[in-house]
Design goal:
The complex is a heterodimer of chains A (332) and B (392).
Chain A: H1 2-28, H2 34-44, H3 51-60, H4 67-79, E1 85-86, E2 91-92, H5 93-128, H6 133-147, H7 150-165, H8 184-221, H9 224-231, H10 236-242, H11 244-254, H12 256-274, H13 280-288, H14 292-320, H15 322-327
Chain B: H1 2-12, H2 31-38, H3 41-51, H4 53-68, H5 72-75, E1 96-99, E2 102-116, E3 121-133, E4 135-145, E5 149-157, H6 176-212, H7 214-229, H8 232-242, H9 249-262, H10 265-279, H11 283-290, H12 295-303, H13 308-331, H14 343-347, H15 353-358, H16 366-387
Antiparallel strand pairs in B: 1-2, 2-3, 4-5
The chains are: A mainly alpha (332), B alpha+beta (392).
Chain lengths: 332, 392
């Protein structure tokens, strides 16, 4: 077990290095840099710009260095917790990100739990009642969730909630808590507002999960040991719960690796529509204004979030499944 | 022969039927069996696919929708950018069949406009005294059909002096129904072009990794893993922010498809790789190698055809993700921009809650999105079941 965990941690390092490099290439690709748009803005306001001043700025932020140098500075800074400086906000990136990352984690976590709660019974029912009307109906429902664009569902839900509850539920907390320090009341307010994004993001992931769970359970249900059990007269429900379900439970945990990227994607776009204080809106504006360190760090955080989520699910799987624990292999 | 049987029966005392017996009778094929055994692979696939009713229905639907983009100008009652300045934000107009219990055929009533100064809203109502029967194959906005003939025929339009807004109008008074039909052109092709790009990438990269193995395989595996573990949308957003604002719409279109494809090939590459790893150990592959065939030929001629149909089916299943991706990007304003019209660009107008409350018909472009994605999913599912050569 110790070996497995160690190996799993070591495997993360090259992954993160590749990810950080790809991200850096992407944020460097647009022609020009933030300072150029800054100059353009100043000049449009009729102010003259001292070229020496700009050159100093450029030197200060390391923008005049070669590409690889810049990457090494950025990446090595991240290791010690220095994520660079946001030009647009005039603040260190860590200060801008602040709570936002925590809220993204919160939304994603609840969405995963929501998806599990929905997908688990439906998948079980569909597998045990294969090709029944219930199976078809529930599958269709899942597909509808998949096919409806998240952002539109978010808008409609926002409107419906507004009409039925009479409150504005955009955002992730009541207005009075926005700049308040974290407290019990604030947490409750966040939980009250959380359900809409969770439901909206959850609907798109549920369909895929239901189908994978169904296929997984169906494979298991046709294995000889189940037939033997049935022949020996084990009651159907006990037969289902005792072994096949336990085996597909493993899959349930490991599927987080597939689920998490799509949940975080969904969270981004829904955040824009619902104006949630998560990463979505800031990421877009940072990308558009070429605020490169802010955008890059955001992308990096999202990637790290996914990688860590997958790591946790792998470790949980190792705890659950002796085959992985003892052989040190991954089931995916 | 029958005589021999009789003799034996007489001697041993066992019962032997005296009906004539043809020992080859079990081996001769009935007509239907023969048809089955001699059928080509494609024919077998088609038979298996036909059993899947829903998939068949969705396939027909897809063909119809893709067919419609060839004749968008004819199907749409108005041209893409025709503005009806007197009818801004008009709700969908109901089409009736009966007037006061009397059958008239499809017609619309006169469409009246008032400004409600209390609510500061435009309000539309039917004027029941005017009856405008719809015309078919009628004259309307002129257009160049396929860029060749100049014509002004449309499938359906309202008579002179009346309007036909089946899905309402937008903030500039443009007919939503016509715009949705035109939008299908971009929205439907972006998935196809994207999948072709990702298909080429997936097959060549996965093919190399699976055939050569070794360090190529390892590095491809790593890259695929990294790309798959990254949330798609933020990466799409980052990549599309790169596209210069000065690009012409058509270049933006290709840029977006390229971006969609760049992140999508990993799934296909993985499938190609695992199949190739298994197939390259087969005898016929060794034989080809010994005869001096080049890797390119072995992969292309001997290995790929074995699971190509299966690949096509899997690729079908990733088209909907591309269509949704384009819709999401355009909705956020990072994808296609007007004057290019796609469903995502149309939905961009429905970005705030006021629209949902006051002009809900601006959200109608989502209907074709949902339909096409459901259709592709069911069609792809059926196709995959039918094409899987490893299933009985």
């Amino acid at each position: 077990m110790g070996h497995y965990i160690l190996r799993r941690f070591l495997m993360m390092i090259p992954t993160l290095i590749i990810i950080s490099f790809i991200i850096f290439v992407i944020i460097q690709l647009p022609p020009g840099d933030y300072l150029e748009s800054y100059i353009a803005e100043l000049e449009s306001q009729g102010e003259s710009v001292d070229p020496q001043f700009i050159a100093n700025l450029r030197h200060q932020y390391g923008l005049d260095e070669p590409f690889l140098m810049q990457y090494v500075t950025w990446a090595s800074g991240m290791v010690v917790g220095d994520f660079g400086y946001s030009f647009e906000y005039g603040l260190p990136v860590t200060d801008v990100v602040g709570d936002r990352l925590f809220l993204t984690v919160l939304v994603s976590m609840f969405t995963i739990i929501f998806t599990w709660i929905i997908a688990f019974p439906i998948g079980m029912y569909s597998a045990t009642h294969q090709y029944s009307w219930g199976d078809y109906g529930l599958t269709l429902l899942g597909f509808l969730g998949l096919a409806t664009p998240n952002f539109l569902l978010a808008l409609v839900m926002l409107y419906l909630a507004n009409v039925t509850f009479g409150t504005s539920i955009g955002g992730l907390m009541a207005p009075e808590y926005i700049d308040a320090p974290w407290s019990w009341d604030k947490l409750m307010s966040v939980l009250e507002h959380l359900w809409i994004p969770v439901v909206v993001i959850g609907t798109s992931g549920t369909a895929a999960m239901i189908r994978r769970l169904r296929a997984n359970l169906l494979d298991e249900l046709h294995k000889p040991y189940v037939v033997t059990g049935r022949a020996k007269g084990v009651p159907p429900f006990k037969l289902l719960v005792k072994y096949p379900l336990r085996v597909s439970l493993n899959f349930f945990i490991s599927d987080v690796g597939n689920l998490l990227p799509s949940i975080i994607s969904g969270a981004e776009i829904v955040a824009v529509v619902l104006s949630l204080p998560t990463t979505g809106p800031i990421l877009i504006s940072a990308l558009q204004s070429q605020d490169m360190y802010l955008a890059g760090s955001f992308l990096m955080f999202l990637a790290v979030l996914t990688v860590i989520g997958v790591l946790i699910s792998d470790l949980a799987l190792a705890l659950l499944d002796p085959r992985i624990r003892l052989q040190g292999g991954s089931s995916r | 022969m029958t005589d021999v049987h009789h003799n034996h029966a007489d001697n041993s005392g066992h019962f032997v039927a005296d009906r004539p017996f043809d020992p080859y009778s079990i081996e001769t094929l009935t007509e239907s069996q023969e048809k089955y055994y001699l059928a080509s692979q494609w024919k077998l696939m088609w038979w298996r696919f036909k059993r899947h009713r829903l998939a068949l229905f969705c396939g027909v639907l897809l063909v119809l929708m893709y067919g419609s983009i060839l004749i968008s100008e004819f199907l749409a009652p108005y041209a893409l950018s025709t503005r009806h300045t007197d009818y801004i934000y008009s709700p969908p107009q109901p089409v009736h069949l009966f007037h006061e219990g009397e059958f008239v055929g499809p017609f619309v009533y006169g469409w009246e406009y008032q400004l409600n100064m209390d609510k500061l809203l435009r309000e539309y109502s039917e004027d029941r005294s005017q009856i405008h029967p719809l015309q078919f194959f009628c004259h309307g906005d002129p257009y160049h059909f396929w860029g060749i003939w100049k014509t002004d025929r449309h499938l359906v339009c309202a008579p002179e002096g009346a309007q036909l807004f089946l899905f309402g109008t937008d903030r500039l008074g443009r007919d939503m129904y016509s715009r949705i039909i035109y939008g299908a052109r971009i929205s439907l092709t972006i998935g196809l072009v994207g999948i072709i790009l990702s298909f080429i990438l997936g097959i060549s990269i996965g093919g190399l990794a699976g055939y050569y193995g070794g360090w190529i395989d390892t590095s491809v595996q790593r890259i695929t893993e990294v790309i798959r573990s990254f949330p798609e949308l933020p990466l799409w957003m980052a990549l599309s922010a790169i596209l210069p604002v000065t690009w012409s719409p058509i270049w933006v279109f290709f840029g977006i498809t390229l971006i969609l494809a760049l992140l999508d090939w990993t799934g296909l590459a993985r499938a190609v790789r695992s199949k190739l790893l298994a197939l390259r150990e087969e005898d016929y592959c060794t034989a080809a190698q010994l005869m001096g065939a080049k890797p390119q030929r072995i992969i292309g001629r001997h290995l790929l055809p074995g699971f190509f149909s299966h690949l096509v089916a899997s690729a079908t299943l990733s088209i909907p993700a591309m269509i949704l991706g384009e819709t999401a990007l355009s909705f956020l304003g990072l994808g296609l921009r007007p004057p290019i019209t796609s469903w995502g660009v149309l939905l961009n107008e429905a970005q705030n809650i006021n629209v949902v409350a006051i002009y809900p018909w601006l959200m109608l472009p989502v209907m074709p999105v949902i339909i096409i994605i459901l259709a592709f999913n069911f069609f792809g599912d059926g196709l995959r079941d039918a094409a899987d050569p490893y299933k009985t």
